[in-house]
Amino acid sequence: MDKITEVKNPFPPGEHLSKAARELYSRLQNEYSIFDSGGAAILQCAAEAFDRCRSAREEIEADGGPVILDRFGQKKTHPGIGIERDSRSQFLVALKALNLDLEPLKNEPGRPAGQKCRARR
């Protein structure tokens, strides 16, 4: 009887990541077979940016939204807005660097439904 041994993942998600970020990391790693050191490093950066973005969003919501009052009672943008924006951008850049094909697969050849080629007159 042959024993099937389970291969340990050489690049698991970092323990410092939130549960949601670890799940995202694992899902992307498995769906796109990212098991090389470079891809895993980029995926780790993406997961960290994902966590930072969510953390900033939670902080913004806890403080009452994207606008806060300064010490003079004047409205100003919440400092977390920049963190959220930058980390979202870093997340998307990391996904782009992984060169993932994020478009849904088509069931048939040719153009997507609703796109018609118009002949020139």
Fold topology:
Elements: H1 19-31, H2 37-62, E1 67-69, E2 75-77, H3 80-97
Helix pairs in contact: 1-2, 2-3
For the secondary structure, the number of strands is 2
Please work out how many helical segments DSSP would assign. Answer: 3
Low-confidence stretches: none
Structural class: mainly alpha
Gap between N and C termini: 71 Å
Helix content: 40-55%
Strand order of the largest sheet: 1-2
Query: Element order, helices and strands?
Result: HHEEH
Quick one: biggest sheet?
A: 2 strands, antiparallel
Give the overall shape.
elongated
Cα Rg: 21 Å
How confident overall, as mean pLDDT? 85
Question: What portion of residues belong to β-strands?
Answer: under 5%
Structure description:
By secondary structure, this protein is mainly alpha-helical. The chain has a domain at 19-97. It has 3 helices and 2 strands; from the N terminus they run ααββα. It has a two-stranded antiparallel ribbon. A hairpin with a 5-residue loop joins strand 1 (67-69) and strand 2. It is elongated, with a radius of gyration of 21 Å. It starts with 18 loop residues before the first helix and ends in a 24-residue tail after the last helix. 15% of the residues are buried.
